[in-house]
Write a structure and sequence with these properties.
This is Importin N-terminal domain-containing protein. One of its GO terms (biological process) is protein export from nucleus. There is one protein chain. With 1072 residues, the protein is mostly helical. Among the domains are: 117 residues; 193 residues, no CATH class. It contains 55 helices and no strands.
């Protein structure tokens, strides 16, 4: 019966999958819906049915159907990883698949299954046996198995993949996982002869088809070994690592990076790349197991690095291989024996490997013409860039060469004479030479050999191409130049860089690179050069396009350089002129250029502050006019240029407000009108489309919210609110944020601030709150805040603040009372669910959520009780008990204490209506009420200001810190004379574990600024909470029975509230 049901399910699944491949859209939709319903049943047989179809259980299954089934299974397991009884059938299917695409699709869910449960000892012996009998490892006629070698190796790779990262990085010496040891012992270590055999075949087989099979098998095996040693080092692999490394070196030594390898040998190149990655891992992570191989590894890496002469004609994979060869050399140089091994090759490296990688080549010129953004991203990165794409794309040979050059430049070699030996004649000169870095002895002299190109020299000339490399090299010497006197850097820049800006016709490649290196070296430049450098870079910023070449990279790199100069406090003498130049450029180029200029304007304003803010009112309208054409029709998302423009506008206006808080009323009004018009264009739907249910996009919502908050700040009357269309903008704002689901810590501060500004606007301009706080606004904001309660810690606290504001600050008219009730229920439900999820360690968040429920309970106790009971049986009692619990803690503010007091009064009053006085919860809440009443009285009477004492203490601490710094500086000076000891493996592991722990602590703590969380009870704050408590005690004196009050509590009550003696009666006295 079970087999018949399984067959029926497979047949039904096959029919539905065929339907999804139909040409008829209705049939496709119907089949997709049926598959969703079938998957939603949770039947464990459904994924098995998909697997059976993907594996080709029927001869009639087409490749298209099998691929569709494999794709659906992959997506299904991504959603529901808790699939039982799938692991073994999936592994079996992977071993028998006969199509590369199917293998690629099904290995992905297998990764997920293995990551969830990587303890699989019964599979390893089976896989070992299968591997031994596959045709590439044991060729026919000895092989008795039809298993595919590549499939089996792919399965091995999937099993080792989870071990590439430490399972518990907080442990300094985490032991090798048992499953990885088993894999290494049973398969990886015994596979060393197989590995050797594969390498021999790859290097000797001439038949292309056979060679490609061996190359693919070797690549997968290399990846498996890499995953096994990237973090851990299984003991079984230690003995075979030297043999494996020798085979890796054979692959690298046979590598020739020229056009003959392109296309035909792509897999070979991937193997070489993996070999170098393994060597990087061994040198940095497991050096003691590779010490005897360092010389051979270095020699191989240098041979590959010297092939950088072909870099202009190589593809990205070959470029990456050269980059890795530079990285291997860099890692070796940073080891203990590194100087001894590498120093003799410095001159050869510089002349034959590093410099060819830095020099201008044909590929650079092609990228400049065809994809300027790619050229800038690779060669002229700055803080204004937003790099995209795969991280590996950024690891170019040029960047790795620059990194190696930087390490060589600062290296000084080991001490020539032990510290405790006596000086001998001639030692003085040796010590002087020893204290000189290779930057002084080798790098700078080498670069000085290349002369500055003459005016108008052709780009293709060797002089221009070489000097391009010189400029690239200078840009990578920050660490070296930081150790030199400022005059040293000034002379270098004045003699070797600035003359390029004086040439009447200088090739754009050199000017752009000069801009970049000035930005890179900004921290090393003396202040005396600021004016000259600003003039040169500003001139480059307005460079027009030439007839045959775009000068956008020149302008983009100039903008990045200016931003870097400002960040390092190299300021212009004339701020206004610089600002006018940049503002004048906006709109003259494409969107990318305008985006960069918007960011540069923001940097100028942030750096200039008072010196620049007085000019802000004069350029706000110009910036808005530049943004406006880039804002698309609703609901299309904004392009990047519009988002950058709005961010720039926020910086402009906020800086102006901070620098000129008493700005003229007319200027405020003018700025508010400009901002309002901009947001109206972005958010308000034209009258002709009002009937359509269109919501503006959430593009740049944080910055746009800040603009709306500034408009509200500048509004001082109902007439202005009407003119600026604040009501309409707030409704649109609420619609947008109601549908926001992406929570980012830096992306929501503006939203919360605008909600607060909107709530306070009514009282600020003496306007009925309902005129601004409409039901539409409340509904949208409530949805946003409810989601915020369930977001990260900081967002939760900010959302809790807004809950109190929304419930208590606005003046709600009768027709909006229903809306407020629904809002209170929504907030209480969200807070209760989040509260139940939290661990006890998040005390601040715990209390904030309890107080949110309290705020809701004060207004609608019956509704909140009913809501909590719906969420959990006894939920209202659970919340009340936790409220009583936090009352025993040290409530920090008067408002918190008042809210708890008022809530406990209502809880006690309602408990008295439904239970006897002996009820434990009732008695506990009453005791808590008395405790927090005492605390509230203390807070009300506490008027002492300890700020002066705190300041004195801080000053004393600062003095102590300064003296400590001086001592540390002295010690640093002494230490600098000693030999720099190489970091041991234990020190490395301890440092990594400490960093991992710091990261976890940072994520757990999520420090929140004090002003992000506060409680405003609105009109409730005017209630005399202690009088309310007094009335309750007077009305229900039966609560004050002696057995429920401790002697200490009674004494504190009498001391704080002497009048309570008349309410407690003789029973308390007799108890005492």
């Amino acid at each position: 019966m079970a087999m018949e049901e399984s067959a029926a399910l497979i047949a039904e699944t096959r029919r539905l999958l065929k339907g999804t491949l139909s040409q008829d859209k209705a049939a496709v939709d119907a089949s997709a819906d049926a598959l969703r319903r079938l998957s939603a049943t949770g039947s464990p047989s459904f994924p098995l049915a998909l697997l059976a179809i993907a594996a080709g259980s029927s001869d009639g299954d087409t490749q298209g159907l099998r691929i569709a089934s494999a794709t659906y299974l992959k997506n299904f397991i991504n959603i529901d990883i808790h699939v039982k009884d799938l692991r073994n059938p999936l592994a079996h299917a992977l071993l028998t698949l006969d199509h590369p695409l199917l293998l690629k699709l099904l290995i992905q869910p297998f990764h997920l299954v293995v990551q969830k449960d990587n303890s699989w000892p019964q599979l390893i012996p089976h896989l070992k046996s299968l591997l031994h009998n596959t045709y590439l490892i044991t060729p026919p006629p000895h092989s008795r198995s039809h298993w595919n070698t590549l499939n089996a190796l792919t399965l091995l790779q999937a099993l080792t993949r989870p071990f590439q990262y430490f399972f518990n990085p907080k442990v300094p010496k985490e032991p090798v996982p048992q499953q990885l040891e088993l894999l290494a012992t049973e398969i990886l270590a015994p596979s060393q002869p197989t590995f050797h055999h594969f390498v021999a075949k790859v290097l000797s087989v001439t038949d292309d088809d056979i060679r490609r099979q061996y190359e693919q098998a070797l690549l997968i095996l290399c990846k498996s070994i890499y995953f096994a040693v990237r973090s851990y080092m299984p003991s079984a692999l230690i003995q075979v690592i030297p043999s494996i490394c020798h085979d890796l070196l054979r692959i690298l030594d046979a590598l020739r990076l020229d056009n003959t390898l392109l296309g035909k040998f792509q897999t070979r190149l991937k193997i070489a790349k993996r070999c170098l990655i393994i060597f990087c891992t061994l040198v940095t992570r497991h050096r003691k197991h590779a010490d005897k191989l360092l010389k051979s590894i270095l020699s191989s890496a240098i041979n590959i690095a010297r092939q950088s002469i072909y870099i202009g004609a190589l593809d990205s994979l070959s470029d990456r291989i050269i980059a890795l060869s530079f990285d291997v050399i860099s890692h070796i140089l940073e080891t203990g024996p590194g100087w001894r091994l590498v120093s003799s090759h410095f001159s050869t490296l510089l002349d034959s490997a590093i410099f060819p990688a830095l020099s201008l080549n044909q590929k650079d010129m092609s990228e400049w013409d065809e994809d300027t953004e790619e050229y800038i991203r690779k060669n002229l990165p700055s803080e204004l860039d937003e790099s995209t794409g795969w991280a590996e794309d950024l690891f170019t040979a040029r960047k790795s060469a620059i990194n190696l050059l930087s390490i060589i430049a600062i290296s000084k070699g080991p001490p020539a004479v032990p510290a405790n030996s006596k000086r001998k004649k001639g030692d003085t000169n040796k010590r002087k030479q020893q204290n000189s870095s290779m930057g002084e002895l080798l790098v700078i002299p080498f670069l000085s050999k290349f002369s500055i190109p003459s005016d108008g020299e052709e780009t293709l000339s060797k002089t221009v191409q070489d000097y391009y490399g010189v400029l690239m090299a200078y840009g990578g010497l920050q660490d070296f130049l930081k150790e030199r006197p400022s005059d040293y850097t000034a002379t270098l820049i004045r003699n070797r860089v600035l003359p390029l800006y004086s040439l009447r016709k200088c090739t754009p490649y050199l000017v752009a690179t000069s801009n970049w290196l000035l930005g890179e070296l900004a921290r090393c430049l003396p202040q005396a050069m600021s004016e000259d450098i600003h003039n040169a870079v500003t001139k480059a910023l307005i460079a027009p396009d030439a007839e045959e070449i775009s000068c956008y990279p020149i302008r983009a790199s100039a903008a990045g350089a200016l931003a870097s100069l400002l960040d390092n406090e190299h300021f212009p003498s004339d701020w206004l002129s610089l600002l006018q130049v940049v503002v004048g450029r906006i709109g003259t180029g494409d969107e990318n250029e305008s985006s960069i200029l918007f960011q540069l304007i923001a940097s100028i304003v942030e750096s200039g502050q008072q010196k620049i803010s007085i000019h802000v009112p004069g350029i706000v309208s110009t910036i808005a006019a530049a943004i406006s054409p880039h804002i698309p029709s609703i609901p299309d998302p904004w392009p990047q240029v519009a988002e950058k423009g709005v961010a720039c506008m926020v910086v402009l206006v906020q800086t102006w407000v901070a620098s000129i808080p008493d700005g003229s009323k007319q200027q405020m009004k003018d700025i508010a009108l400009v901002l309002s018009n901009l947001l109206q264009q972005a958010w308000l739907i034209p009258v002709g489309q009002m009937e359509e249910a269109i919501i503006p996009p959430p593009s740049a919502i944080n910055d746009a919210s800040m603009l709306l908050g500034l408009i509200i700040q500048f509004t001082d009357s109902p007439e202005e609110a009407n003119e600026l269309k604040i009501k309409e903008l707030l409704n649109a704002f609420a619609d947008i944020i109601a549908d926001c689901h992406a929570w980012e810590e830096m992306e929501d501060q503006g939203i919360f601030n605008t909600i607060k500004e909107a709530i306070y606007l009514g009282s600020k301009i003496n306007l009925n709150s309902s005129t601004i706080i409409t039901s539409s606004f409340i509904e949208g904001v409530s949805n946003f805040i409810s989601e915020g309660i369930n977001a990260y810690t900081s967002a939760t606290l900010k959302a809790c603040t807004c809950v109190h504001l929304l419930l208590h600050v606005p003046e709600y008219v009768a027709e909006n009372e229903t809306v407020r009730r629904a809002m209170a229920v929504q907030f209480a439900s969200a807070a209760f669910l989040r509260f139940k999820e939290l661990s006890d360690k998040k005390a601040e968040l715990w209390m904030a959520l309890i107080l949110v429920i309290s705020s809701c309970y004060l207004l609608y106790p019956e509704c909140v009780e009913r809501t909590l009971e719906q969420r959990e049986i006894g939920g209202s009692f659970y919340w009340a008990s936790k409220l009583a619990f936090i009352s025993s803690s040290n409530l920090s503010t008067e408002t918190e204490a008042k809210l708890v007091v008022l809530t406990l009064v209502k809880v006690v009053d309602r408990l008295l209506m439904v239970s006897a006085t002996e009820n434990d919860l009732l008695l506990g809440c009453f005791v808590a009420l008395l405790e927090v009443s005492i605390r509230l009285n203390e807070l009300l009477e506490d008027c002492e200001d300890d700020d002066d004492d705190a300041h004195e203490t801080d000053d004393d601490d600062a003095d102590d810190d300064d003296s400590g710094d001086e001592t540390n500086d002295d010690n640093d000076d002494e230490d600098s004379e000693d030999e720099m000891l190489e970091e041991t493996e234990d020190e490395y592991l301890n440092r990594c574990a400490a960093a991992a722990q710091d990261f976890v602590d940072f994520v757990d703590e999520e420090d929140v600024d004090d002003d992000e969380y506060f409680i405003d009870l609105g009109n409730l704050d005017e209630i005399d909470a202690l009088s309310v408590v007094r009335s309750l005690v007077k009305q229900h004196q039966v609560l004050a029975k002696g057995e429920m009050l401790s002697e200490d509590l009674v004494n504190r009550i009498y001391e704080t509230f002497p009048e309570y003696q008349q309410f407690f009666g003789a029973s308390v006295k007799s108890c005492m």
